[in-house]
Design a protein that fits this description.
With 319 residues, the chain is α/β, with parallel strands linked by helices. The chain has three domains: 161 residues, P-loop containing nucleotide triphosphate hydrolases (Rossmann fold); 37 residues, no CATH class; 93 residues. The chain is 49% helix and 12% strand. The protein contains 16 helices and nine strands. The strands form three sheets. A five-stranded parallel beta sheet has the order 2-5-8-1-9, sandwiched between helices. A hairpin with a 3-residue loop joins strand 6 and strand 7. The radius of gyration is 25 Å and the shape is elongated. The N terminus is likely disordered.
Length: 319
């Protein structure tokens, strides 16, 4: 369904350049590197100085941040804590194979349009008036990209697992990230009054294009070392002994060295630690660990690979 050539030209949907600039500057909230570090710590997100600096630059240079690394290492959390730090909305686009522009950008609400057409035809309204109405913002379904661009304040846009999307969609994404504007034939051009803070994540399921990389700041987010993960566990799991938190972190770090099909994520480490608290465990015990191994290992081949090494890994973790 498209508007005829005789329809009147759409009114602009944006402010003038000077108006956009002044309002955007007024809405921006600058954060120093120290504020970023303090904020991440307050929100219990523990990472490396390199990641902290990348987050600071992404916010203050208004450059998209591409975070690559293994699944479950905390890449998505960057966008979540940034939204809290900036006290703004998190808009999430989950990528998958076959994702297209319509699902990412906008669609017309065809069912609502058809109902309106039927109602107006029953009242013998002129098609020009009907058309003008059904191609208004009232009938537009905003998907994540348009929602982030059209937002009345700066938001955080998370483009999660971009490596799962097709190369054609990645090429479309390049244009959006370059201009932060969208052309809707029936309405006109929607330009971002407040450029969103963009975080893209990739598990490296496929290699991303050099063109996308050039437009982004890049940071590799790996699993934290045992000391940092022990601090994460201690801060986020209530009722857990500090020594046991260290043992849990060392045990999980040992599991990750086994070349598993899927290494345990930080979230799964936390689930494992909470389960120990629920069971009243005061120390790591091989029998207890084996009974709860499904919290950490989600593939049968990984369970079999770890089965005979649990005792040794527990012993090493307990030091």
């Amino acid at each position: 369904m498209s508007r005829s050539a005789t329809a009147r030209p759409p009114a602009p949907l944006t402010l003038g350049a000077r108006g956009r600039y002044s309002r955007a500057m007024a809405a921006r909230r600058e954060l120093s590197l120290d504020e970023i570090r303090a904020g991440l710590k307050r929100l219990k997100y523990f990472t490396t100085p390199r990641v902290e600096t990348a987050i600071f630059l992404a916010v203050n240079l208004e450059k998209p941040l591409l975070a690559e690394g293994p699944a479950g290492a905390g890449k998505t959390e960057i966008a979540k804590v940034l939204a809290e730090l900036l006290e703004t909305e998190l808009v999430r686009l989950q990528c998958y194979e076959g994702l297209d522009e319509a699902r990412a950008l906008y669609e017309w609400n065809y069912q609502k349009q058809l109902l309106r057409i039927q109602s107006d035809q029953a009242e013998n309204r002129a098609w020009r008036d009907v058309e003008e109405h059904i191609f208004s913002r009232e009938y537009l379904l905003e998907r994540p990209l348009l929602r982030a661009i059209a937002a009345r304040r700066r938001v955080v846009l998370l483009i999660d697992e971009v490596d799962k999307a097709d190369e054609e969609f990645e090429a479309f994404l390049l244009e959006v990230l370059s201009d932060f504007q969208v052309s809707i034939p029936e309405l006109g051009t929607v330009r971002a009054e407040h450029r969103p803070v963009v975080v893209l994540t990739s598990n490296r399921a496929r290699e991303l294009s050099e063109a996308l990389r050039r437009r982004c700041l890049h940071v590799y987010v790996d699993f934290p070392g045992p000391a940092v993960e022990a601090e994460i566990v201690a801060r986020k799991v209530e009722g857990l002994d500090a020594a046991l938190a260290q043992h849990v972190a060392r045990f999980v770090a040992g599991l990750r060295k086994l070349e598993l099909r899927k290494a345990p994520s930080i979230a799964e480490t936390l689930d494992f630690a909470r389960a120990l608290v629920a069971m009243g465990a005061r120390e790591l015990d091989p029998a207890v660990v084996r009974s709860m191994s499904g919290l950490l290992l989600k593939h049968e081949e990984d369970l079999r690979k770890a089965e005979g090494k649990v005792s040794a890994l527990v012993s090493a973790a307990r030091g």
